[in-house]
Amino acid sequence: MLRQPASVLVVIYNENRQFLLLQRKDDCEFWQSVTGGIDLGESSIETAYRELKEETGIDAKALNIKIKQHHTENHYEIRPQWRHRYVEGALINTEHVFSVCVPTQIEVKLCDEEHTDFVWLEQTEAAKKVWSDSNRKEILAI
C-alpha cells in the first residue's frame, strides 16, 4: 500500500533532558527521532503512539505516558529515493509534531527492519546529529 504524504515526528527525551536518536538502516548517516506515516483512517496522535511503540518498543499507553501534540506542521520535500513509497505525484510531506518525556532508565528495543542503533544525547548534540532541519528545529524547541 502506498503512503499518503502525511507523517508524524515524535521527539523523545528523558527526565535528564537527553534526546533519543535512531540510526536508519537504509542510510547510516541518517539519524532521527521517531517518524512514520499516518495510515488511512488513523489520527496523527494514534500514529504517534503506534510509531513510538513500533520503532522503540516504548508503549506509552501501557506505561501511562502522555505524548504531547505540538499542533505544529512541517512541510518538506520527500527525498527522491523514497518517492516510490508514496501515492503518485506526492512531492511534499506534511509532518505533524509530537514529543514525549520518558523515564531516564527506560528500555529501548529497536525495530530491526528500520534502525540499527540508538543514542541518547544532550539537546545541542542531538540537534547537530539529526539529518533533517525539521527534526533539528523541534529538538531545539523543547
Identify the notable features of this structure and list them briefly:
globular; three-stranded antiparallel sheet; 36% strand; 142 residues
Largest β sheet strand count, sense and barrel closure: 4 strands, mixed
Low-confidence stretches: none
DSSP E strands, number? 7
Shape: globular
- Protein structure class: alpha+beta
What do you see in this structure?
The chain is of the alpha+beta class and 142 residues long. The protein is 20% helix and 36% strand. It has a four-stranded mixed β-sheet with strand order 4-1-6-5, sandwiched between helices. It is globular, with a radius of gyration of 14 Å.
What's the arrangement of secondary structure elements?
Elements: E1 6-14, E2 18-24, E3 31-32, E4 34-37, H1 44-56, E5 68-77, E6 92-102, E7 115-122, H2 123-129, H3 133-141
Parallel strand pairs: 1-6
Antiparallel strand pairs: 1-4, 2-3, 2-7, 5-6
Helix pairs in contact: 2-3
